[in-house]
Amino acid sequence: MKRKRKIPLVVISDVHLGTYGCHAKELLQYLKSINPQTLVLNGDIIDMWSFTKSYFPAAHMNVLRQIIKMSNLGTRVIYITGNHDEALRKYSDFILGNFELVDKLTLDLDGKKTWIFHGDVFDSSTKGYAKILAKLGGKGYDLLILINSLINWFLTVLGKEKRSYSKMIKDSVKKAASFISNFETTAADVAIQKKCSYVVCGHIHKPQMKEVENEYGKVLYLNSGDWIENLTALEYKKQKWSLYHYKKEHYTDSDNNEEKVVNDIVNKILS
Q1: DSSP state of 2
Q2: Taking a C-beta distance cutoff of 8 angstroms, is the pair 76, 51 a contact?
Q3: Could you tell me how far CA 56 lies from the centroid of its own chain?
């Protein structure tokens, strides 16, 4: 197995464990390939809106086991609550060993103030009656992801390139594009007001790194994307941010074989 990459800080968000669209196997490969000093889980890691006992496969459980293992081996793991795992907010500010549960986070990165939060605080669709509609929409989105997965399986069999129909639908809706733009601008404006150099969000499933400037100053806006469609993470190393995009070719057959052995053992225990 390849030597693990040492990274001071890694941020992932919107994994949505417990849903059909979650790419848990790919995330597990990524987590096993890194040795971060700090791992920030920026919301919607476990999808409690869609959680059922009938669907939480071994691959999803293995992700949680790997995160716990990383914490036990010395990685500082900070879980920031999101809207899909908001049930955890009543336990905020909980600390156990290297594991912390918070609602938002401020870090000093090489002398630069960094504000990290999920981002649903800016989303009116997560409040009141609109929240119920958002949950129903989430169920439809999960079904769309499942159908998309089946279509991509057939495309792979036919030797054709995979396509993300759910992403195409979202990108084609002008209202969604406007919401994303407003979200990014609002986050940046508040961060500038708070005298931050970096603001890091999740929630909108759109990986991003861009400098935003207004009449009061400027800030680097970052979004870690998701592990449903984009399979991305933010990495901070040598005083620079970068967006990691998962690619299957980054991993060897030995990595896949190790994962298969773990899954076989888990399945035997559960059966």
Answers
A1: P
A2: no
A3: 17
